[in-house]
Amino acid sequence: MRKETGYSYAKCRKALAKFGEQNYSEALRWIKEAAAHQLTTALFKHAENILNSKSDYKTNFNGELNSLEISANEIKLPNGHSFEELIVSSIGKLGEKISLNCAKIFYTSPEFNIFGHSHPNEKFGNVEMGRFISIVSMKRREENSGFPLEKLGRQICHHIIGMVPETLGEPYEIKELNEVKEISENEEKMDDESGDSSENTTKIDENESQLIRQAFMLNPRQTVCEYLDYHGADVKDFLRLELGQSNE
């Protein structure tokens, strides 16, 4: 049973003790159901922590958690198997212990589109896998540049992985933005006068943690906010995760 399911010796022993070796199929069914319940409980405990991270979320979403849990229990893969069965099957095929470390719920309004990217980018069918992943929700304004929104979304995802923003942030006021640009231009001028070999390199404030205030990675002379404005797009929210990252 341990080889077939990948579960610990203690859990397998408990299942066999409960049903007896003659009722192996019942013991197997019980241990799978117990594991599924444990997995679902852990997933929604984490989801509840995310939803309750702000007091208004707690008020708005507490009443919906039960319906979310029921829905998750009924989630099936295209082949009809459950998520828990997929993990058990993968353990048997790979011979490695697999567990769900954390789950993130990313939701957005209907008018927003969701884009994602991973790095390094390994694709298995339609699924991207990598050490780093980013997700962003964006929408197109009526007046826009005509630049493909999907391509723009992937560019912002690239930026999020590379520049590690912590919050969405607020755009600069015009006066504040001009002051930032003036400081940058003065620094570049000083480099020119001193003969600095990096005279053609645009400086990037690596300490800026607000996404839309950061220098856009593919064109550092613009902030992310300016780049989005030029293409007539808005970002509502984003998510960045790294393999081994703490759940906190």
From TrEMBL:
<keyword id="KW-0251">Elongation factor</keyword>
<keyword id="KW-0648">Protein biosynthesis</keyword>
<dbReference type="Pfam" id="PF00889">
    <property type="entry name" value="EF_TS"/>
</dbReference>
<feature type="region of interest" description="Disordered">
    <location>
        <begin position="182"/>
        <end position="207"/>
    </location>
</feature>
<dbReference type="Pfam" id="PF25025">
    <property type="entry name" value="EF-Ts_N"/>
</dbReference>
<dbReference type="InterPro" id="IPR036402">
    <property type="entry name" value="EF-Ts_dimer_sf"/>
</dbReference>
<dbReference type="InterPro" id="IPR014039">
    <property type="entry name" value="Transl_elong_EFTs/EF1B_dimer"/>
</dbReference>
<dbReference type="GO" id="GO:0003746">
    <property type="term" value="F:translation elongation factor activity"/>
</dbReference>
<dbReference type="GO" id="GO:0070125">
    <property type="term" value="P:mitochondrial translational elongation"/>
</dbReference>
<dbReference type="GO" id="GO:0005739">
    <property type="term" value="C:mitochondrion"/>
</dbReference>
<feature type="domain" description="Translation elongation factor EFTs/EF1B dimerisation">
    <location>
        <begin position="71"/>
        <end position="245"/>
    </location>
</feature>
<protein>
    <submittedName>
        <fullName>Translation elongation factor EFTs/EF1B dimerisation domain-containing protein</fullName>
    </submittedName>
</protein>
<dbReference type="InterPro" id="IPR001816">
    <property type="entry name" value="Transl_elong_EFTs/EF1B"/>
</dbReference>
